Each structure stands twice: as C-alpha cells, then as structure tokens.
Amino acid sequence: MTYFTEPRSFLIKKGSLFAILLVVQFAFSQNVPITISGESKTSSEFFKELEDKSGYSFFYLDDWIEDLKVEQNFQEATISNILEVVLSETQLNFYLLEEEKRVFLLQNTIIYDELPPSFYQTKDTLGSTTVVQSKRNVPPPTFYNDEVSQTTEKLPVVRIGRANEQHLRPTYRLSGRAINAETGAPIPDLAIRVKGRSGVTVTNEQGEYELVLPAGYNLISTSAMGIRDSEREVIMYNDGTMNLQLQESLEQLQEVVVEADAVSNVEEAVSGSEEISSEESKDIPLVLGERNILEVAKALPGISSAGEGASGLNVRGGKTDQNLVLLDDAVIYNPTHFFGIFQALNPFTTEKVNIYKGAPPVEFGGRLSSVLDIETKNGDTEKISGEGSIGPVTGNLALEIPLKKEVSSLVIGGRGAYADWILKALDDEDLSNSEASFFDGIIKYHHKFSENSEIRGTAYYSKDNFSITSDSLYNYSNRLGSVRWAHKLSEKSTGVLTASNSNYNFGIDYDDEGNSNFELDYTINESELRYRLNTRLNEAHTLDYGISGKYYSVEPGNIEPKGNDSNVEPITIDRERALEGALFIGDEFKISDKLLLNVGARYAFYAAMGEATQNTYQEGEGAPRSESTVQDTISYDSGEFIKTYGGPEARVSARYLFTPDFSVKASFNNSYQFIHTLSNNTTVSPIDTWKLSDLNIKPQKGYQATFGFFKNFNENMYELSLEGYYKRMDDVLDFKTGADLLLNENVETEVLQGEGKAYGVEFLLKKKRGSLNGWLGYTYSRSKYRFDGETSEERINNGEFFPSNFDKPHDLSVIANYKFTRRYSVSMNFVYQTGRPITYPTGTFRFNNADYVTFSDRNKYRIPDFYRLDLGINIEGNHKKNKLAHSFITIQVYNVLGRNNPYSVFFVTDDGEVKALQSSIFGMPIPSITYNFKF
Fold first, then answer.
1. Which residues have C-beta within 8 Å of that of residue 98, sequence separation ≥ 6?
2. How far apart are the first and last CA of the chain?
3. pLDDT number for residue 911
4. What compartments host this protein (predicted)?
C-alpha cells in the first residue's frame, strides 16, 4: 500500500503564517537531541525506549523487526539520524509525520510527499496533453496495488530491495541461485520468464541467474525438466537477490521424450543441439534390454552409424573420428562395449548427454562433426540411495553416498557382463565359437565449499576382452580422470577450471600351435588443462571466454614375440608427441526480444613435437609417396617442433523469433582437427589406431552452414523442426587399396588426403506429454568424398566424388511409448535406413593359370536396406512409499520381425565361382527380461 500526503510545496505557496510556523516546528523537532543505547536490548525494547524519549508514536508490524539487532549507542543524536543508522542494513524505510509526531516504518517502499511529474498535466492551445517536467530528472516511484496479487491464487509476494528516493531507476537487477529443495543441489538450465516480456533467462551450471526487471510488480515463472513449475510475484524497489528453492517433479521423469525445456528449441540461438537424459532411455526397447543413451541418439535426425554392431556415430555425414566424446570433461576414445552393441557408460550414474551437431559452444574444438558432452550425476547429500539392474547379459549397480550432509557426496557405479552365451546364438559360425566379457566402473566425488565454490572429481575405467578365433585374444580399455573447480568471481562472473587425463589402449595376444606367437600393444594418452570464464556484462551481452592446452602422447604400436619358440621379430614404432591449444571468446548478444546472436571466435594451435624422425618425399608428377620416393629423413630432438598448424575458427548462430513459439535459426562454423583414425575396415574397430598430424599428414578442416525452422504447438506439447545443412571437409583421410596400416613406420605412404562434402535435411516431430508420447525423425542426407592425386595410385574412382561407407540417403526412426496407467506401458522402436555403399566384384580374369577378381568403383553398389522393429512392455512396481526398493521390469523383443539385416557382405571363390555372402549380427528376434530396482 502506498501513502501520500498533501504536497509541501503547495502548502508553502499559500503563504500562510501557519505554514511558516509548521516549517519552523519541523526543523526544531528534527534537532531534538536523544541519547539511547542499543546494548542488551531487544529490538522491541529499543523502539519502545526511543518512542518514550522522542515523544513520537511508532507504527510497524512486530515480525518486521524481530530479526533486527541494535548494538549501537547514540549520544545527542536526532531521531532521523538514529533511524537511518539502525535501518541501514535492512529492507525497512521510515517516514516522519511531524504534525502528529508519528513514525511509520515501511517494508521496502517509501512514502512520497510530492506527487510524480505525470500527475501534473496541462493543455496546450491545440488541446494536446503536456506533462510538466519535475525538477529532478528521475523516474516516477514504484506503485503497487495489493489487489494485483489476488489475480493468481497462492502466489507469495516477494519484495526486493529497499527503495531510495535519491536513486530511483526504471529498472533494477535481480540475481540469485536456484537449488533443489530436497537435495540442495544447484539446478542448471532452469528457464526463468517474466510475464509480458519475451525471451528467457537460463541458470548456469551453478544454478545462478541474473535478470533486469522493471521497477514495481513482476510475475516470474520457472520451469525445468524434473522440477515442478512455479510462479512468484516480485516487487522491485531496488537491486537485490532472490534464491529459489524448488521442488522435484516426479511425473516428468516418466516421460520418454528428449526435453530440456519447453521452448528452448525455439528460443535458443544455437541450432542442431539435443539433450538426452539417461532416464529417457529406460522405456525404449533396445537389444537385450540394455539402456543405451548413445543408441537413443541414433534415433535423432542427422545421427547414424555404419551398421548394426558399428561402435561409432556418423553425425551429418562425418566420420566416426570426427566426434569429440567427453565424459565429465575428459575424452573417452571408445565409449562402447561388445563390438559396439552396448555403451560403455553406466546408465544409472549418467545424468545426461548434450549433443551439438551444428556450431558447438566456443570452448569445444578439435573435431569437425559433433560434440557429445556426457555428464555424470551428482550424488545425494541427504541419504544413501542406489539403483541397479539384472539383465540377460549384464549386472549393474550404482550407489549415491552422502559424506557430509548438504556438502559432499560420492557416486560409485560398476557393471559387468556374462555375455559368452549370447555369442553362441549369433548367426555367424565364427562368432558362435567366440567369447567376450567386459566391465566398467566409475567414481565421482562432489564437494560444495560454499554458495560460490564447488569441486567435482571423476575417475573411470573400462575394459573389454574378446576372442573372435580360438588363437587370438583381443582387449581394449579406457581410463580417464578429471577434476573440475567451479567458483564465483563476482556478482557477474564465474570461472571453471578443469584438468583431465585420458588413456586408450588395445592389445592382441596371439597364441597358436606354431611358432608365430606374439603380443601387440597400442596406446594413446592425452592431458588437458582448461579455464573458462562467464561474465554477464549487461542484459544484452554475456561473454564466454578462456584458454585451453592439451598434450598428446601416442605409442603407435609395438609387437613382441611370445614364448621362447616364437620367430616373430620385435617391432616398436616411435612415439608421437604433440601440443594442442586454443584461445576462445564468445558473446550471446541480445539485439532485441526477437533477434538473438551467439557469436564466437576461437584460435586453434597445434605443434607436432620431437623426439622423432620424419621423411620428406619427392614432389611432382609420377612420384607418389612410397619408400622409393623418400627424399630425406630428418631427426628432431626432444621438445623440438616438427610442424605447426592452426588458424581461426568461427562460431556464429542467430535466432529470429517471429512468435513466442516459432523461430528461424541459422549458423556457420569452421574447425580444425589434428588427430585422425587409421582404418581400412568398413566400420570402426577397437584396433583402429589414432594418428597425429605431422610433417606429412595435414590436419582436417571443416566448414558447416545450417538453416532451419522451429515451431511448437498446443502449449508446447508438440515440437516440430525442419533444418538443412551443408558441410565441406578438406584433407580428410582414407586409405590406398590394400593398405597396411598397423605397425607401419611410414604410414603416410598408405593413406590419402582429399575433400568431402555432406548435405541434408532433418525433420523431427515430438510429442512430449500425454498417454502417447515419443518422436518421429527423418533425414535425407548425402555424404561423399573425393581423392584426386597425380598418379592412379593416389586417385580413387578416377578422382570423382563417391559415396562414403556410411552414406544412407534415407533414415527414418519412430520411438513411441503408450501409458495405460502409471505402472503399465508399452513401447516401440522402428528404424529404416537405406543400405550403405559397398564395393562389389564385377568380373574375373585368368592370368598365368590363376583366377583374379576385378572390382567395381569404390562404393558403387549398396547392401540391402536396413529395417528393424523392437517392442517392449514396461511394468513399474507399486508406488507404496515405505518399501525397501522400488522395482521396474522391462520385457522386450529386439528385431521382432526377425529381419536378417546384413552387417557386412564379403566374397569367396567356390569351385571357380565368385559368391557373395552376408553376415548378420542379429538375424532373429532376441527376447529379454531385465529387472531394475531403486532404493
């Protein structure tokens, strides 16, 4: 409620003697000296004594001053000075009514004894209204009508700041932190909206936000996945803070849709990004009932793989090595188990994965196609909890252990496989006689020092062992660790310091009845240090900037004889070393409520380092790289730069908002990639080697442009997007026909570097709520490469563009879940893809009494189209509160139609006739039952 007295200036204009005496009385009463002590007194006792000594009557509510501590002593002070000191650190103001010797304490607001300028209006000679300007060039005071709050039920009114008549502004700044009321954990990506204004503010990783709001009344709403929506009435009197304690929403966790925020797909500037929570994968039927967040990603437009059982992802026509896969900020080189069928990520410790297919955030670099940023959940700081599953192939358990209440926690997860039996059921005689096992484990520590500082540390290890034949045992492992310290530097700036280390290793243990037994090893190791800062300059500009540095150490391989009888010659390839660094800065620039830009620049630097030797080769027509064209061999000392590469990278995204639920987006980015995989397999293999750029192998370069439309319907129940992209790639790697890549000291003589292009259109329709939910995704795309050298040996398909191994023009995915009740639901996963390209033999010829095969141009033909239907029944346990554990059972059938989809096609000569044979991973329906529990 706002109070007004008659303007004093009006009284003085009357010129009456009474007015003059009143002014004199006011001046005298203000200077009556008062001596009073606040020591050993409650606030009520202090104000009662002040009331007695001053002769003024005080008006206030007791709960306004119950937390007020008065510790000052006052000697011969006026009542105005006393109140200014006592109330200076509170949200209270005061008003003196001299005529009646009364003091009114006011919560936040002030009483004005002069009406604002807009109350005084005159008419000019033309009849138009003219506002009389005030002597002070300040905005009018804040007016608030109590009846406004009655329009929305049960919404508490929050008053922010203490009004100051000398510093009135049209807008004030509101900041704070959003936390989970149950766990105390910060809530990132919380959308905060102001009614009547377009645009949205999103909390950062520490749950912090900042808004600029008009003075006076505002209605603020919040929403986020897994958090109950809320509304708050806020009255802004000055700058201030408002922390949000929000409740969880259990109902949202049961949805089977990719949903980070109701309208983020429309309002964000960045396009081509998706967020998938691990919880969303539990109802989607996948092979052997295993949750697989990476397999769910393949159901999104623009993301696919070379085939069933392929362990890599192909994003918008890019190769598998062009994806940067991060687990808590550390690179994981092979995030799959069991020939790519299972993910190497514990689904019960994984929180979510953010996928960037277009222009990624400016802090990320080093890959051409995409970034998969996987985040592990923080542990519960209140009570011990856990989750696990028992399936036909794996057992899984994850625990959340509080170490100090509301401060620190530990997450521990482990899973192992008992998978040998499934190999015997595969439609492949060789595989049916094989064996395989794997395990992975993860530990995450999270500690919150204060509201402004927290640290997390993650350690992860996985290992696979498999035997395709009785004489060979293959193994590969991932090991990584990361430490991340997030801290608040000021009200506007936060910083994140990250240190990480990653290691990938594979080996072959060959043991037969002869004398050719050997052991082979390969290792790549990298360490990175990155510091990223975020500063909100004002409502229009938010900066992201920082620096990163990375050190690579690659042992390309060594082979050692096994046993005393082995005649294998030992070979060790020289270690490779390199430095990679970057400086980056980005600005989210809000030009208007409709137009939002996200502009970034990144400078990437790379240096191949010694100790090493490098060959130089003859240049010119008719001189392909080979051992016979070596011109010179150069030796480099330890730490000496062999070759440096680098250049600027752009990150530009723009969004124009036509309506609150319809926008158009465009983006452009370019990037460098200094590390490559060397493989002559159709699909990615655990024994593919990584190769650093050096004197003879250049870094890959990529350029991508996108344009798309994004629309929501029916109160954001439906999401619709249509996005097109064009990508160009330079210096991409491929292999020469018959290349020998493993343990090759001069591997640059076996590879080619050329150009690539990819383009496509992606369509996505989601239904996020209701009994029936899910999504339909369709992609039309092409991915082509060209290698054109000066000799036939350096050309593929006569130097013309040809389809890549993973070029699949048509890709359709349908994921649906129907809930009969809260406990019972059925789900479906349908996939259709054009068959991938393949090189066929086109004829035979006889030479020197021997038969030889002639092949078509590379990837001229295609294997049969791929399609698969999976069905599942999901049964939730009863929802009684007092239970030892809550259960969830999935009954699923993978490949219901028994489609014999080809994994690969190969050719053999039988009785002088060349025959084509195909191998399938799952050529029959695969049923499974998985029991999940949570406590």
1. 22, 25, 26, 29, 30
2. 50
3. 64
4. Cell outer membrane
List, in sequence order, every residue forming a beta bridge with 616; answer none if it has no partner. Answer: 632
Q: Beta partners for 853?
A: 844
- Mean pLDDT is lowest, of 732-746, 827-841, 854-868, for 732-746
Give residue-wise pLDDT tens across range 56-113: 888 878 777 777 778 777 877 888 878 888 887 777 878 777 777 888 887 777 776 6
Distance CA 352, CA 530 (A): 22
Q: Which of 254, 283, 305 is the last residue of a domain?
A: 254
Peptide bond preceding 611 in cis form (omega within 30 of 0): yes
pLDDT at 280 over 70: yes
Ranking 162-176, 529-543, 863-877 by mean pLDDT, the lowest is 162-176
Tokens at 687, concatenated: 């024994």
Between 673 and 121, the more confident residue is: 673
Output the six-digit token pair for 677: 């995989």
Domain boundary among 236, 254, 272: 254
Where in the sequence is the domain holding 229, given as residue range(s)? 146-254
Domain count, the chain: 3
Tell me, yes or no, whether 268 and 247 share the same domain. no
3-class secondary structure per residue, 479-518: EEEEEEEEEECCCCEEEEEEEEEEEEEEEEEECCCCCCCE
Q: CATH number of the domain that 110 lies in?
A: 3.55.50.30
Q: How far apart are CA 572 and CA 321, in angstroms?
A: 25
Query: Do 721 and 832 fall within a single domain?
Result: yes
Only one residue has tokens 């240049």, namely 619
Which sign, positive or negative, has the C-alpha torsion 748, 752, 755, 758?
Answer: negative
Same domain (yes/no): 296, 362: yes
- Between 199 and 252, whose confidence is greater? 199
Q: Report how far residue 49's alpha carbon sits from residue 51's, in angstroms, rounded to the nearest whole number.
A: 5
Same domain, 279 and 411: yes
Task: Please indicate whether residue 852 or residue 898 has the higher confidence score (pLDDT).
Answer: 898
Side chain identity at residue 589, one-letter code: F
Q: Is the residue at 772 inside a domain?
A: yes
Tokens of 226: 């897994």
CATH number at residue 877: 2.40.170.20
**Residues 671-695, mean pLDDT to the nearest whole number:** 79
Same domain, 109 and 164: no
What is the predicted pLDDT for the residue at 426?
58
Longest dimension (CA), the chain: 134
654 — pLDDT class (breaks 50, 70, 90): very high
Integer angstrom CA distances of residue 14 from 18, 19, 20, 21, 661? 10, 8, 10, 13, 59
Q: What pLDDT sits at residue 555?
A: 92
Shortest CA distance to 643 belongs to which of 692, 702, 678?
A: 692
Residue 757: how many CB atoms within 10 A of its CB?
Answer: 16
- Rounded to whole angstroms, how far apart are CA atoms 380 and 399? 9
Clarify whether residues 446 and 334 are in a common domain.
Answer: yes
User: What is the domain-level CATH number for residue 153?
Assistant: 2.60.40.1120
Q: What is the mean pLDDT of residues 159-181?
A: 83
**pLDDT reported for residue 425:** 60
Confidence bin at 428 (pLDDT 50/70/90): low
**Burial of residue 638 (number of CB atoms within 10 Å: 0-12, 13-18, 19+):** exposed
Domain presence at residue 534: yes
Is 652 part of any domain?
Answer: yes
Contact assessment for residue 814 and residue 764, using Cβ atoms and an 8 Å cutoff: no
- Compute the distance between CA of residue 669 and CA of residue 671 in angstroms, rounded to an integer: 7
φ, ψ at 190 (rounded to 5°): -80, 125
